[in-house]
Amino acid sequence: MQSLRVPLIMSILGIETSCDETAVAIYDRERGLLAHLIHSQIATHAPYGGVVPELASRDHIRKLLPMVDACLAEAGLRGPQLAGVAYTAGPGLIGAVLVGATMAVGLATAWGLPAIPVHHMEAHLLAPLLEPERPTFPFVALLVSGGHSMLVRVDGPGRYRILGQTLDDAAGEAFDKTAKLLGLPYPGGPALARLAGEGRVDRHGFPRPMLNRPGLDFSFSGLKTAVVLKLRELERDGLLDEAARADIAHSFQEAVVDTLVAKCVRALEATGFERLVVAGGVGANQRLRSRLRAELTARGASVYYPRHEFCTDNGAMVALAGSLRLRPGVAGGTRIEARARWNLEDLQAMAFS
Ligand code: KG4
Ligand code: ZN
To answer: Is 131 a domain residue?
Structure first.
């Protein structure tokens, strides 16, 4: 009797709802990314000037299931044909995380699949593995998002040691708060970066926080204070026009980028590694990218980024991290994992091929 050849589908559904993006993707170990969708809640939160957690949760509830259906249709798959459902289990806004977690575990249970909880920052730092030109291990990862700024030593998948992190505001948070001070619309980071492009040379020479001290920690709140003081001074003297605002944005961006670049170089020197991965929303910043490329190339090191839409929150990175964490034969349970805080160093190492 001839045996049936059943195609081995190793496709993982990835669900991301930790903040203000609802994102879904299907990643296949053999065939790569099969589908991905991102719905941004910017329009929902813009009138409030920041993310309103309860509105974020409600919007995830509205959007998630239709997006799952659309991704399955695009990939030409039905739910039960998948190998697992991965979801961001934290860190993040707990209500928002819970929406994705409960739906993911519900779908996995209905389809008879394992549900795979994924650490949001691990997903970010593995995102460059989605690209054709992917880094090999080990590498240093600079994770710079709205909620985190950290440098991580990555010896392999799941083997992380935090080398330094922010003592106060995250880099994205500093961009967002400074943008607000400059009267820019939410979300501030990209708007500030655009305004900075119109500014002249670094006129203000804002402080480069923590550069004069050894170590790899960051601090951005002093820089924000320096911007507040400069804005007050210019306003008092009647000099706060559009050009002055652009110059402040420019000087602010230079100070943040200088600090991040110097710490990345320090981290590479401390580890002896030659590869840097940049992930998280601030990784979309063009000035940071060009400065890092120049500095690292000069040192014979390389820098890797995910494509633009995978720098910010997305489902593809969650599906990829889930596919690495999926162990054959491990059955799904109905336990729902959701954490507002979660230390990256608490993760278990995983096999990688
Ligand atoms: O990773 P992400 O999408 O969400 C979090 O997990 O936080 O990062 C969002 C952050 C926001 O603070 C946003 O202002 C910032 O990334 N961001 C940027 C740029 N694009 C996004 N900051 C500076 N320059 C950009 N081009
Ligand atoms: Zn993120």
So the answer is: no
> How many CB atoms sit inside 10 A of residue 5's CB?
6
pLDDT of the residue at 8: 60
Residues 6+ apart with CB under 8 A from 242: none
Structural domain containing residue 220: 136-305
147 Cβ closer than 6 Å to some ligand 1 atom: yes
- Verify whether ligand 1 is closer than 6 Å to residue 172 (CB atom): yes
pLDDT of 204: 87
Closest Cα to atom 21, ligand 1: which residue? 281
Is 2 a domain residue? Answer: no
52 with 76, same domain: the answer is yes
DSSP string, 185-226: PSSHHHHHHHHHTTS-S--S----TTTTSSSS-B--HHHHHH
The predicted-structure confidence for 257-299, as pLDDT tens digits, reads as follows 999 999 999 999 999 999 999 999 999 999 999 999 999 999 9
How many residues does this entry show for the chain? 353
Eight-state DSSP code of residue 341: -
What CATH number is given to the structural domain containing 266?
Answer: 3.30.420.40
Distance 75 CA to ligand 1 centre (A): 29
The region of weakest confidence among 204-208, 285-289, 308-312 is 204-208
Which atom of ligand 1 is least distant from the CA of 171? Answer: 12
Supply the pTM of this predicted model: 0.92
In-domain check, residue 161: yes
Tens digit of each residue's pLDDT (9 = 90 or more) over 49-107: 889 999 999 999 999 999 999 999 999 999 999 999 999 999 999 999 999 999 999 99
Q: Residue 291: beta bridge partners?
A: none
* Residue to substitute in 39, 143, 145 for testing ligand 1 pocket (most ligand atoms within 8 angstroms of CB): 145
Q: Is the CB of 93 under 6 A from ligand 1?
A: no
Note whether 108 and 211 are same-domain residues.
Answer: no
Say whether both 237 and 180 belong to one domain.
yes
